[in-house]
């Protein structure tokens, strides 16, 4: 497993379907079930939604965020300073073990000697779960551990992971013989293979080797914390993605074909996208999705401070402009213009819920176009219907630019 996560994406997915996020199913003994469980072979999100919730998404926010029973702005009253944000996710995993509600938690440590290379583990103690705090923002074969789950006789399991992993886990759930499964989802977009993360950090930072933590913040900047504690920040608009060969050269086909940024099939999703700034306050946000998600929220609630959801601005003009840029990509503007754009984004751009909506819509649009350009024949199988409903507002501008309808 150590070796797998250090490989390039091309090495990792050799012999697999072209679109693969290396979720771990294919390296486990469950590989024969690939056609039934992989979201890049056939996206079954709407079928799984009906099983979990008895319905599909309603119009409005659910189209972007997935079905939820409640949503909250939260942070740990005593934050874990080593966590990605305040440590809600690992605290929840640790609590499940402490209270005897599960026997094991699938979570992701770092490969020894690295800060960011993921190493999935079947944690049996609260300490092990806490030690897995912080993102290792690279493709991680977490479902490979389902073999260990079966072999060790674990019947009550918690799983922490990304949406491609959760799609496969939900699709295979009934075959695992588990008595209880809690799914704690983290939102995820534009993940990369480990060597590509190192390439990205080279262009983003003056000292890439000392970065211990980084995040694409809601203030339109990447914040990078170094070993000595200092924080380096770079505007999104200043990132020279062309030096990496463009988005297609760094992001795996799978992440460009993903339509579930918000991990909608989890019991509870814990992210930061809609949380209020500034980042050092470590506010997070959560969507409680299922009855099991309500149990998880009640479990962690005594340890939380609760804030308020907010929003500012109107995303639709900016997102319409993004559709035009998808069709006619522009060159990176000169420094003074970039400075102005960064200022405008920070001071006039959408905030809170509206920021989250804008980011999700842009990713849906970009990925729909990627699938059409690169894997057109797969569109009907791997793009769920809710995507077209979610993007209907941009139908006219899409048609004007691309000369075809947004719907298939
Ligand atoms: C690649 C990636 C992209 C993300 N993008 C977004 C985003 O765009 N918007 C957003 O709101 N949130 C995003 N998140 C989630 C967010 O950054 C935090 O992980 C989340 O809010 C939990 O914070 P925490 O302090 O509660 O987590 P912690 O308590 O620090 O726990 C982090 C958990 O993440 C798990 N983990 C770490 N790396 C991986 C991995 N590669 N695969 C699977 N699980 C992993 C660990 O096992 C651990 O359980 C992303 C996470 C990852 C890994």
TrEMBL record:
GO molecular function: oxidoreductase activity, acting on CH or CH2 groups, with an iron-sulfur protein as acceptor
Protein name: Coenzyme F420 hydrogenase/dehydrogenase beta subunit domain protein
Species for this entry: Oscillochloris trichoides DG-6
The Coenzyme F420 hydrogenase/dehydrogenase beta subunit N-terminal domain, residue ranges: 78-146
Pfam families: FrhB_FdhB_C, FrhB_FdhB_N
Domain annotation Coenzyme F420 hydrogenase/dehydrogenase beta subunit C-terminal: ranges: 155-300
InterPro entries attached to this UniProt entry: Co_F420_Hydgase/DH_bsu_N (IPR007516), FRHB/FDHB/HCAR-like (IPR045220), FrhB_FdhB_C (IPR007525)
């Amino acid at each position: 497993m150590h070796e797998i996560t250090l490989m390039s994406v091309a090495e990792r997915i050799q012999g697999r379907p072209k679109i693969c996020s290396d979720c771990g199913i294919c390296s486990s003994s469950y590989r024969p079930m690939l056609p039934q469980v992989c979201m890049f072979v056939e996206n079954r999100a709407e079928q799984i939604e009906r099983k979990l919730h008895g319905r599909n998404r309603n119009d409005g926010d659910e189209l972007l965020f997935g079905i939820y029973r409640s949503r909250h702005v939260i942070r740990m009253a005593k934050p874990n300073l080593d966590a990605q944000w305040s440590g809600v996710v690992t605290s929840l995993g640790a609590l499940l073990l402490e209270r005897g509600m599960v026997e094991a938690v699938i979570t992701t440590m770092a490969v020894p000697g690295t800060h960011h290379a993921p190493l999935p583990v079947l944690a049996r103690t609260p300490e092990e779960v806490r030690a897995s705090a912080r993102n290792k923002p690279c493709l991680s074969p977490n479902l490979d551990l389902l073999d260990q789950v079966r072999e060790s006789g674990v019947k009550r399991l918690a799983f922490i992971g990304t949406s491609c992993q959760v799609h496969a886990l939900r699709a295979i759930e009934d075959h695992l013989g588990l008595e209880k499964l809690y799914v704690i989802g983290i939102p995820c977009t534009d993940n990369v293979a480990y060597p590509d993360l190192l390439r990205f950090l080279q262009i983003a930072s003056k000292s890439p080797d000392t970065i211990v933590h980084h995040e694409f913040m809601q203030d339109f900047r990447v914040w990078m914390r170094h070993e000595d504690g200092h924080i380096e920040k770079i505007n999104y608009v200043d990132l020279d993605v062309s030096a990496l060969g463009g988005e297609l050269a760094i992001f795996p086909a799978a992440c460009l074909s993903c339509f579930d940024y918000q991990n909608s099939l989890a019991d509870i999703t814990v992210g930061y996208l809609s949380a209020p700034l500034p980042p050092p306050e470590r506010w997070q946000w959560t969507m409680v999705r299922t009855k099991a998600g309500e149990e998880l929220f009640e479990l962690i609630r005594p340890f939380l401070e609760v804030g308020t959801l907010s929003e500012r601005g109107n995303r639709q003009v900016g997102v319409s402009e993004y559709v035009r840029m998808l069709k006619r990509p522009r060159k990176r503007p000169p420094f003074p213009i970039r400075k102005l754009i960064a200022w405008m984004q920070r001071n006039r751009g959408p905030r809170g819920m509206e920021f989250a909506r804008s980011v999700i819509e842009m990713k849906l649009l970009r990925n729909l176009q990627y699938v059409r350009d690169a894997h057109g024949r797969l569109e009907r199988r791997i793009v769920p219907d809710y995507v077209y409903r979610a993007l209907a507002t941009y139908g006219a501008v899409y048609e004007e630019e691309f000369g075809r309808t947004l719907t298939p």
